[in-house]
Amino acid sequence: MQNYKNCILKIWDDISNFKAKKPVITIGSFDGLHLGHQKVLNRLNDIAAKVNGESVVFTFTPHPVKVLSPEKEFVLLTTIEEKIELFKKAKLQHLILFPFTKEFSQMAYADFVKNILVGRLKINTLLTGYDNTLGRDKEGGFDNLERLSSKLGFNVDRQPEIKFDENSLSSTHIRKLLSQGKLLQASKLLGYRYMLSGTVVHGQQIGNKLGFPTANLMPPDNKFVPGNGVYAILVRYNGGTYKGMMNIGVRPTIENYANKPVIEAHLFDFSGDLYGKFIRIDIVRKLRDEYKFNSADALRAQLKKDKRFALETLDKEFGIL
Q: Would the pTM count as exceeding 0.70?
């Protein structure tokens, strides 16, 4: 068996020079990289170890929905940067970021397998999801792939159906839980705390006036943001981890309130300039909904209570730091 402890992830956005030892490949979008996806990756690594090969995830950029249905409002649980970090934690060895186009979407599964998986990648084993299909019109189901594999000289394996207690293990269900502020339930299905990451931008300095300076985060447009409210958080920046709290919402108490939700993170025991810096926020728990206060003083008093609650949550309930 191979030791994946110190694997270094190799990322390929051009497969013309791709090279791996007996590639064991799985294909998918892997949005959220939840526990179901992680089971697939564990199986991928196990198969690679058995055949003395290397594990490969073949995914697409941009997401197929963005290309095929650009009019749809579509958000993702993970950015590509977040997904890469999760793939690294899963001890994956190769990640292919294949450019998805309308032309590619019309390719028959047999041509994709023959020309790309076999012809270019020299595949040893294809691991499919329980009900995944490949190619135009979803013709590349497991039975067809198995018949094709015997002709082209590679192996096919299928991940068994994955069930998780009574909860639905899907990205759609996880989004629903996050929208409802059910962070603990979502985290159990993800296998990690849901995160927001991006660049800190200038705000209206309202937090400074209230005694709670904030870092305003600007995540990518297609990143899913949980429902409005106040949250206990951990902020990862420059190798350090800081406790904090975050508001997602329109700031209804402020006269010049926002016309769409903004993300404002207040870091406890931190001093420094974060403008223009990249940070990651791990969302631990929702503390309360966002609501309008009668005055700025009432809001300030509530923020003090929120801070105490956030610290209690981070220190006692979760034993963090």
A: yes
